[in-house]
Amino acid sequence: MANSLIEDVDGNVYIDLNAGISTANFGYNNPEIWNRAQEIMEEYGVLGIFPSNDYNLPLMIDTSKKLLSTIPNGSQYRVHYACDGTEANEAAIKTAVSYTGRSCVTSFMGSFFGRTVGSLSCMAQKSQDADTFRSLRSNNIYFAEGANCPNCMFCEHPEDCNGYCIEKFLKDRVLTYQVSPEEVAAFIMEPYTTGGLMNPAPVEFLKSAREICDDNGIVLIFDEVQSGMGRSGKMWVHEHHQVMPDIFTSAKSLGGGVSPLSAAFIKDEIMENVPAYHGSTYGGAPISLAGNMSALEYIDKYRLLERVKKLGEVIEKRFSEWTEYMNVWQCRGWGLLKAIDFRDGKDKPMAEYKTQIQNELFKQGIITMSGGQGRYLSILRLIPSFTIPDDQLDTALDIFEGVIKKKTPELICVLKKEII
């Protein structure tokens, strides 16, 4: 592996537009980040793994300060470290329940939160989510309609939004008929739904959720596991909306590709009133913290947020040409969180056709990831690394367009090994 290229056992090389589901924001095997992480560990005198939950290491304190400096009003938060996105969400949910003394959670359909029991209980993307380990899932989760603009049951077009998803579904159906607001500990949602839609929530949706939480003492949790760490063009998605959550989570590339790292960023006043019974054995290990610190330096050094916006504009320009092709219903997304939705009309998703496109892309040396929600499993995601070379992105988009046009492009089907 090198940057955005993956080589298989037969020597074929593929351009990866998936970036390990956003775990490789800085490319595979980034030598600069890895070498700098080693230097940082040596500077702080801690190598590899250390019982960091038992001691506040100077490296942890300095990493936390640097991370919090990237967040608007970051001084209002504290950091809990873990290893995986679902662990961070478990910490967020448990913290909200402990802090409020309430036992119920309202989740928003379409989001992906993880595969441990608490996170899985809050998830509703497709029926398989509910079928999985049904006997272990919590009965105290109530589901509201998410910011489901491409599939909205209330409005034909997102620009026609009249707030029914909040006013008629959340307030009337969920918080009136199913559970009272006084019983709800938290709202949990993705402010930018990733695997389910690849679509940002409208600012009015998030502001309404924030207002309901404020009026009823409910903790607002944002999952930015995939969408955070610069992928939307800003460091954190909620910066776009200027809606501050009480807790938000991050993971994926948080450890810089050096070692797994996740975090729950929790408001000060909440942490002051929560018993310290939650933990993670390897959360905040020095190797992970050094990876994060190195990655943050790398983002600043190479102005990667600007590059994310630039590459996003390149993809958008190509997308604008593809909507004229048969079965390309919609192209959408911010930064390097992009999706192509294959449908024959709003209510006619083409999941099988999408799979055919994906399989053909793979044969021609391009790795993508599918997505969607419910019966709308009709999208392909484009989430390349921030460091993908311009010529590789152009080649990948040329091949992608050729496949959509249903003709073999005048490009080699599988990239030669010499491209590394």
Q: What features would you describe in this structure?
A:
- The protein has 420 residues and is of the alpha/beta class.
- The protein has helices at 19-22, 31-44, 58-68, 85-100, 117-121, 127-131, 164-178, 203-216, 238-241, 268-271, 286-301, 304-322, 351-363, 390-404; strands at 5-7, 13-16, 77-82, 104-108, 141-144, 184-189, 192-193, 199-200, 219-223, 247-250, 262-267, 328-334, 337-342, 366-367, 369-373, 376-382.
- Strand 7 (192-193) and strand 8 form a beta hairpin.
- Helix 2 (31-44) crosses helix 11, helix 3 (58-68) runs parallel beside helix 11 and helix 12 runs parallel beside helix 14 (390-404).
- The radius of gyration is 21 Å and the shape is globular.
- Residues 407-420 have low confidence and may be disordered.
In short:
This protein has 14 helices and 16 strands.
Give the DSSP E fraction (strand runs of 2 or more residues). 15-25%
The separation of the N and C termini measures 9 Å
Question: For the largest beta sheet, what order do the strands appear in spatially?
Answer: 3-11-10-9-6-4-5
Q: Detail the poorly predicted runs.
A: 407-420
What is the count of helical runs?
14
How many runs of DSSP E, i.e. beta strands? 16
Q: State mean pLDDT (0 to 100 scale).
A: 91
Query: What structural class do the secondary elements suggest?
Result: alpha/beta
Q: From N to C, what is the helix and strand string?
A: EEHHHEHEHHEHEEEHEHEEHHHEEHEEEH
Helix fraction bin: 25-40%
Shape: globular
Major sheet size, sense and barrel closure: 7 strands, mixed
Give me the Rg, rounded. Answer: 21 Å
